[in-house]
Amino acid sequence: MPHNMYVCMRHANFSFLLMGCATVIECFSEGFETFLKLVCCNIENENCTTNDCEKCKKDVKDIVPLKHLSKMDANVKWQYWRKLGDRVVLTYTVAALSHLLHELQVQLPIFKQHFIVKVVCQNEIQSAHFNYRQVSIFTCVAWMFNETKSFAEISDSLHHSKIDVQVFITKLIQEIKKQHGKFESIFVFSDGSSSQFKNKFITWSLPDLLAEFGCKNLSGTILQRHMVKVQSMALEQL
Ligand SMILES: [Zn+2]
Ligand SMILES: [Zn+2]
């Protein structure tokens, strides 16, 4: 369990307690949710997470496999964030497993509620996120002899394929031509690492496409620097 991932002190501490137990009781190493499922009959039921359920396990020792009950006096070591005045310090404790289980028992009721509130919040945030319509944005900067202009094209297509790139470029050239008139040379480069730019289809079709717009000279390079979703194109107007 990568405890350093938990920014929240309560999560971090509960994780430390579980890790300490897991050095003897392997099944405690599976993470919060697995552990809570062992002590709660239903972690989605409010009665269980608010400690009002009669059927939930009241004592964490009840979920310790029998073979480990003889190891209650074994020394285990665990870490714990504690507040000392206005500072938070990481402490180390070495004590009997029974002591650690007692600590876990004390923390459990409050952690159950804390955990479920966090999960509900996360689900709400995710469902809000995924309920929004998603779009692709193709961005581009065009350097022309007398000005520099940024463009952003928005599409419902989420494929990010070479065909999408082709359509984006066509629309872009149309727009540039509309705004700035005819051009004869173009230098194209992309700072994206994406294969939708670096493929034969684009290499072969781009000259023909640009010729349709009256462009006679095409040159370009694809830079290696990785910048997701940011594609650039430089135009030199003659
Ligand atoms: Zn937390
Ligand atoms: Zn219950």
What does this molecule look like?
- With 238 residues, this protein is α+β, with helices and mostly antiparallel strands.
- It folds into 2 domains: 3-131, no CATH class; 136-236, no CATH class.
- It is built from 6 helices and 7 strands.
- The chain has helices spanning 9-22, 32-39, 46-49, 97-131, 162-180, 200-212, and strands at residues 75-84, 87-96, 136-143, 148-155, 185-190, 217-222, 234-236.
- The strands form 3 sheets. It has a 3-stranded mixed beta sheet, with no helix packed on it. Strands 1-2 form a two-stranded antiparallel ribbon. The protein has a two-stranded antiparallel ribbon with strand order 3-4.
- Strand 3 (136-143) and strand 4 (148-155) form a beta hairpin.
- Helix 1 (9-22) packs across helix 4 (97-131).
- The N and C termini lie far apart (61 Å).
- Bound molecules: zinc ion (2 copies).
Helix-strand blueprint:
Layout: H1 9-22, H2 32-39, H3 46-49, E1 75-84, E2 87-96, H4 97-131, E3 136-143, E4 148-155, H5 162-180, E5 185-190, H6 200-212, E6 217-222, E7 234-236
Parallel strand pairs: 5-6
Antiparallel strand pairs: 1-2, 3-4, 5-7
Bound molecules: zinc ion (ZN) (2 copies).
One zinc ion (ZN) is lined by residues 8, 10-11, 114, 118.
> Compounds present?
zinc ion
The span between the termini is 61 Å
Distinct helical segment count: 6
Low-confidence stretches: 1-5, 222-238
Give the overall silhouette. Answer: elongated
* Major β-sheet annotation: 3 strands, mixed
Number of domains: 2
Query: Strands of the biggest beta sheet: in what spatial order?
Result: 6-5-7
The SSE string, one letter per element, is: HHHEEHEEHEHEE
Helical fraction: 25-40%
Quickly give the structural class.
alpha+beta
Annotation, overall tally of beta strands: 7
Report Rg. Answer: 30 Å
What is the average of the pLDDT values?
79
Note the beta-strand portion.
Answer: 15-25%
Signal peptide: 1-27
Keywords: Signal
